[in-house]
Structure formats: C-alpha cells, structure tokens
Amino acid sequence: xxxxxxxxxxxxxxxxxxxxxxxxxxxxxxxxxxxxxxxxxxxxxxxxxxxxxxxxxxxxxxxxxxxxxxxxxxxxxxxxxxxxxxxxxxxxxxxxxxxxxxxxxxxxxxxxxxxxxxxxxxxxxxxxxxxxxxxxxxxxxxxxxxxxxxxxxxxxxxxxxxxxxxxxxxxxxxxxxxxxxxxxxxxxxxxxxxxxxxxxxxxxxxxxxxxxxxxxxxxxxxxxxxxxxxxxxxxxxxxxxxxxxxxxxxxxxxxxxxxxxxxxxxxxxxxxxxxxxxxxxxxxxxxxxxxxxxxxxxxxxxxxxxxxxxxxxxxxxxxxxxxxxxxxxxxxxxxxxxxxxxxxxxxxxxxxxxxxxxxxxxxxxxxxxxxxxxxxxxxxxxxxxxxxxxxxxxxxxxxxxxxxxxxxxxxxxxxxxxxxxxxxxxxx
Length: 428
Prior knowledge:
By secondary structure, the chain is an alpha+beta fold. It folds into 3 domains: about 100 residues, Beta Barrel (conserved putative lor/sdh protein from methanococcus maripaludis s2 fold); about 100 residues, Elongation Factor Tu (Ef-tu), domain 3, CATH 2.40.30; about 140 residues, CATH 2.40.50.100. Strands 3, 16, 17, 18, 21, 22 and 23 form a 7-stranded mixed beta sheet that branches. A 6-stranded antiparallel β-barrel has the order 4-11-14-13-12-15. A hairpin with a 2-residue loop joins strand 19 and strand 20. Helix 2 runs antiparallel to helix 3. It is elongated and about 155 Å long. The N terminus and C terminus are likely disordered.
C-alpha cells in the first residue's frame, strides 16, 4: 500500500480530558467526511451542556388555588312531583229533566252558590203546589179533631163518656197530627226538588268545559258530570322521597349535625321550563307507609296560586330546606378525584409551597360542590386549576382563584377582591 506524501492532522476538542485525532490522507476526498463529523459532535456537546443546569433552574409550575374557610350551609333536597288541586268537584244533576239554559262561561272563575244550569222546573213546581194543597187539607181537619179530643178528656174525668169514645177521639186527633207532619214533609221534598232545577256551584274555583248543552236530557246522579270545578288558589304538590333519605335526615337531626329551625320546612318550586316559582310553600304532611315496591313514600307541599300559573298535572321539582350545617367546607366537584380505592381525594398546596394529596370525608353534593365535614382546615389552599400537570411533593407557585358554584367556572381573584370577604358558596 503506497502512503501519500501529504498528511493532514485535525484535532477536535470534545471535553477537557479527551481529544480526537484524525489523519486524513487526501484532503480533497476527506473534507465532506470531516464536516459531517464536526456537525454531529457539536450537537452532542450542546445537549450535554444544557440538560442538568436547565432542569435545575426551571421555574415551578403555577396552579390556581382557592382558599377554603368553614361556613354554614343550608341543606336542601330536590324531589320530583306533580301538582294537584286542593279541591275538585264534579257537577251532576240531582233531578231528572231537560236543561233549559247554561249560565256560566267555560273556563271562568265561579263562586260557591252560583247558578250554573237551569232544568225545566214546570213539573217540579206542580209537585210543590200539590204538596202545599195536601198540607192545607191536612191542616183543615186538625182543629176539629183537636177540640174533640180536649172535650172528651174533660168528660172522661166526670165519667160522662165511655173510655172507648175517648180513645177513639184521641186516635183521630193524633192521626190528623201525623197527616199534617207528612204533608209538611212532602212539601219540603217538593221544594228541594224544585230547588234542584237550579244546579249551583258546590265550591269556588275555575270551571271547565260543559259536557252537555241546553236541550239535553239529564238524570239524577248520572255517571257523566255536567262539568268540573277545580280550586286553584291553593294548590298541592305531591312528591316522592326514598325512605333511606328520610332515615339519614332524622339521624342527622338527632345527632346535632343538622340544625332545624321551627316546625315547618319551607319549599320552593322549579317549573318545567327551568324557572323558579315566585311563591314559596310549606310542607304539609308525609305518608305513614313506605311503598314496598319502590321504597318511597309521598310528601305533600302546599303553595299559594293567586295568578293561577300552576295547573293540575304539571311536572315540577320541589326544593325542600332540610336544615343547616355549621362549620363545614364546600369543595368544588371539579377539584375532587378518586384514588385506586375509590376514595375521594383532592390536591392541596401546603405552607411550604408543595403539593399534597388528601382523602376527604365527602357527605353529599351541594350544587356543584361537595359538602366536606373533615379532612380540611381553615385557610387550606385547594388546587382548582392545573392539577393535571402536578403531582404530590412537587413545588408549585399559586394564584388565588374563585370557583363560581352555579356554573363551576374558575375566575381569578382581582386585587380589590382579595381584601374583601368572599361570600360563602352554597348558602341560601
């Protein structure tokens, strides 16, 4: 092998303790290879210099935190229900006859005692007149038999007449008295039937459509009502609640965890379109028996309805105030996760600025938050934003945030808001 006369020696420094010598024979042929090696070595050197120092000087991650404070929370239960009328009456005729006229406007408000229909009264007026005539006839014979009975009572003391004559006179007088009483009863019956020819409203309320028109034949106590009246000014809402929820509530009240004021529970109503009914109601009663098939029982609330906005059969959701819990914490649901054991956990930032994970004692939800009675101290900083980028034991920077309970939205605390007391979420 023939050695070239021209030799080029190139030295590249990678580290202070290492040197690489390349002997290249034929400088024109080795120049591309030399440039390629220089490019690769420069890249490796740059990576080696930046790795340890860059990680050591990297700034901590900033997370959003909410400072928690104990508060009083009003506990509520939201139950599905249906509205129902407090009073309902089907209007039916009590005598036979032909409807002569209708005296109300369908869908209007009527008062108790208003005349709704008139039945042809001719035959009933004639029956009343006949009964009055029979009464007068019976009354006409009464004075004669009465006087005879009194006269015979005096004669019997003197033994001027026989006992049989006295007993006969007395029997005739008592029979005449009975005839008069019977005639009076017939008059009263005829008067009542004549009054029934005017069909009156049994209760006050809103009247529905008429099922029969003038000219129709009706019979006493027929199965088809003429119309229906419903009282809407006071309306009931029937709801269903599980027996287990009732037991939990009673045990919480008995142990003092829930404080109840007064003997009645206020109730608010959410309508089908999502709006809140303007009038509040009160809880009236609950059934004393639990349905064996569903494990629920019925609860009834009463609401005023002056605008007649609530109609029977509407689907609503009733919010019942069960009581008040003091010294508890509301933790946004977005900040709570589950560990491998299924326990609720959340991330907090301690006084040293490091992240720690805690297991919470969650009792129930209140809006978009969890009600927590233990595992949190006053002033603890809960991570509500950026939890997916951190882990327990990591140092972080914090930024104060507020979680809107109604929507779950996270907002930064403005400078002027930090000096004010943030209203307790979940109250009222």
